[in-house]
Amino acid sequence: xxxxxxxxxxxxxxxxxxxxxxxxxxxxxxxxxxxxxxxxxxxxxxxxxxxxxxxxxxxxxxxxxxxxxxxxxxxxxxxxxxxxxxxxxxxxxxxxxxxxxxxxxxxxxxxxxxxxxxxxxxxxxxxxxxxxxxxxxxxx
Length: 140
Fold this sequence. Notes:
Layout: E1 8-17, E2 20-24, E3 31-34, H1 42-48, E4 56-61, E5 75-79, E6 94-98, E7 104-112, E8 116-120, E9 130-139
Antiparallel strand pairs: 1-2, 1-3, 1-9, 4-9, 5-8, 6-7, 7-8
């Protein structure tokens, strides 16, 4: 049986970006999803299509098939006073922000100015080529 639309798939993966491991299922349960239900990024889904149990391969996913390119309009300048004093500010640090409807999401500190902080609302992997090493464990 091969991975196809509607298949329940379990696979192990290691994700590398710029030569560094950024995520892996090693030592954990395999990632499970239903193929074709848009539960994983499009480029990874396309790469898994047709694979069989036990098969292993590397799938390279371009930004347009993953989290998109970096959107310059997704940078916001906020007053330092709006950030709690106990939060450590540093370029590259990840902060949790709350939307008007109460949802919490991560943002990256892009720049610190005298009275303001520039935050990046892009997905942390936006603009990156993703290199997945995958092995199919189960297909139902």
